[in-house]
Amino acid sequence: MKKIAPLALLILGFLVMSVSFVYYAGNALPYPDATAELLAYQTAEANKWALLFALGFVSAATGGTWLLRRLRAKKRTKN
Fold first, then answer.
1. What is the reported pLDDT for 75?
2. Closest CA to 59 of 8, 20, 23
3. What CA–CA distance (Å, rounded) separates 5 from 50?
4. Left (φ > 0), alpha (ψ -120 to 50) or beta: where does 32 sit?
């Protein structure tokens, strides 16, 4: 479990980032003759997907840092 956790966190972070980017980009398409309510909804959706992207980035960065630190510690103990 200790060996899989950082890699799983890294992969999960990248997956969350990828999915949220696709939905964020799809939401950014302009609507023809959009009403004020529709624009407000679009803004709320954009904020939601941007926040999810940021959380995925933090998750991927944490997993990557954890993995690098573990690999460097392992390398140091071999020398």
1. 82
2. 8
3. 25
4. beta
Place of tokens 């890699």: 7
In the numeric block, which tokens belong to residue 61?
Answer: 């960065």
Sign for the pseudo-dihedral over CA of 14, 17, 23, 25: negative
- Quickly list DSSP for the chain: -TTHHHHHHHHHHHHHHHHHHHHHHHHTSPPTT--HHHHHHHHHHHHHHHHHHHHHHHHHHHHHHHHHHHHHHHHHHH-
Residue type at 36? Answer: A
- Chunked into runs of 10 residues, the chain (79 residues) has average pLDDT values of 86 96 92 91 95 97 92 81
Q: Which residues, at least 6 apart from 46, have a Cβ–Cβ distance to it below 8 Å?
A: 24, 27, 28
Task: Give me Rg for the CA atoms of the chain.
Answer: 19
